[in-house]
Design goal:
Elements: E1 8-11, H1 23-31, E2 36-43, E3 49-51, H2 58-61, H3 72-75, H4 96-106, E4 109-114, H5 121-136, E5 144-147, H6 150-159, E6 165-169, H7 176-182, E7 187-191, H8 197-205, E8 209-213, H9 218-226, E9 231-234, H10 237-248, H11 253-261
Parallel strand pairs: 1-2, 1-9, 2-4, 4-5, 5-6, 6-7, 7-8, 8-9
Antiparallel strand pairs: 2-3
Bound molecules: SN-glycerol-3-phosphate (G3P) and magnesium ion.
């Protein structure tokens, strides 16, 4: 499965500069020159895919309730921007449909992380894939589907075998190679803490791309690029792009992205 990953990808949009997983955050990533964004997709209680990271709504909306128990009619009225800054007050929890419309309007690549709440791995994957497929049409680029959940990725493999997939992990599972193969993944997305040059080389020798999250420090970004990590997922894609331009060269992919974005 061929996959052209960008050097730098915005994390939850551009989570350092705008409230994570909102339309404002996706727009901000594009304004900063990012060509791809990662965001998290979860289901409301009544099964609507929305962009959200936590099981509980409290941190991001102030409401102490589980997303998995809250219907969309309630979620859509919540404020997911004020916690970040009064400038973003009233920013809603976006539906996946709305996020995709924006992503495609902006010409961005999307890395959709399927973030199932406990026990909803299959349902979350199916609902997410359905929404993407309904909006995709012929001329739009299919997104990358990533997940910590092997079950969600297995569903993606069966239902949309041609869309690129990535397994995500904080710690390296001992069976990583078997898992990537069984799930037909193109890429392995790992916490930057577990990456080192021999391990990156081993993953690449096995035929997979490597992305690191969440890379917000310039020095760490340079180290990871030097050990041939393909993609850095960052809350501050602008900062990380500027840190690695000298390594890629002035005509390299990151500088091209930045010039196009400004
Ligand atoms: O996709 C990589 C990264 O987003 C996984 O961690 O918790 O930020 O969704 P998290
Ligand atoms: Mg994520």
């Amino acid at each position: 499965m061929y996959l052209e990953l960008p050097r730098v990808m915005g994390h939850r949009g551009a989570a350092a500069w705008a409230p994570e997983n909102t339309l404002a955050s996706i727009q901000k990533a594009a304004d900063l020159g990012a060509t791809w964004v990662e965001f998290d997709v979860m289901l409301t209680g009544d099964g609507r895919p929305v962009l959200f990271h936590d099981d509980n709504l409290k941190r991001l909306t102030g409401v102490d309730a589980l997303m998995a128990r809250t219907p969309y009619s309630r979620v859509k009225g919540l404020d997911a921007g004020r916690w970040f800054s009064p400038d973003f007050a009233g920013e809603p929890v976006p539906t996946l449909d709305a996020a995709l419309d924006l992503v495609w309007d902006l010409g961005l690549g999307a890395n959709i992380e399927i973030k199932s709440t406990p026990g909803r791995d299959v349902e979350t994957a199916k609902a997410t894939l359905d929404v993407v497929a309904a909006g995709l049409g012929r001329r739009r680029r299919p997104p990358m589907i990533s997940s910590f959940s092997r079950m969600s990725l297995a569903v993606a493999r069966v239902l949309r075998p041609d869309w690129p997939r990535a397994l995500i992990a904080f710690k390296v599972p001992s069976d990583w190679q078997t898992a990537l193969e069984a799930l037909g993944c193109a890429s392995f997305h790992l916490s930057s803490k577990v990456l080192n040059p021999p391990f990156v080389a081993e993953i690449k020798r096995a035929g997979y791309r490597v992305a690191a999250f969440t890379v917000n420090q310039k020095r760490r970004a340079r180290e990871l690029i030097a050990c041939e990590v393909d993609c850095l997922i960052s809350d501050a894609p602008d900062r990380i792009a500027s840190a690695i331009i000298p390594l890629d060269g002035e005509n390299g992919p990151v500088s091209a992205v930045r010039q196009a974005g400004r």
